[in-house]
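Subject: design request, 71 residues
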């Protein structure tokens, strides 16, 4: 999740979302502030799929400040 490549970060976020972990990993939550819109969108999707209530506040904050319509 800390790779310099946006594509790698996006794919890692997708993989976490599809693996159905028990909770939202902190590095995935951190991707909500990534510089790449696709990475932020995939991180938000993964957190939605995981359904970890502890990520709800971070998701709400991210949606309030998000400038990209696609995210």
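Subject: RE: design request

Done. Sequence follows.
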């Amino acid at each position: 999740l800390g790779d310099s490549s946006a594509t790698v970060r996006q794919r890692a976020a997708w993989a976490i979302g599809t693996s159905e972990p028990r909770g939202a990993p902190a590095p995935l939550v951190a991707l909500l502030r990534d510089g790449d819109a696709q990475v932020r969108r995939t991180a938000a999707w993964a957190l939605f799929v995981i359904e970890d209530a502890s990520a709800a506040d971070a998701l709400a904050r991210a949606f309030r400040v998000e400038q990209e319509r696609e995210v």
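The longest helix spans residues 37-50.
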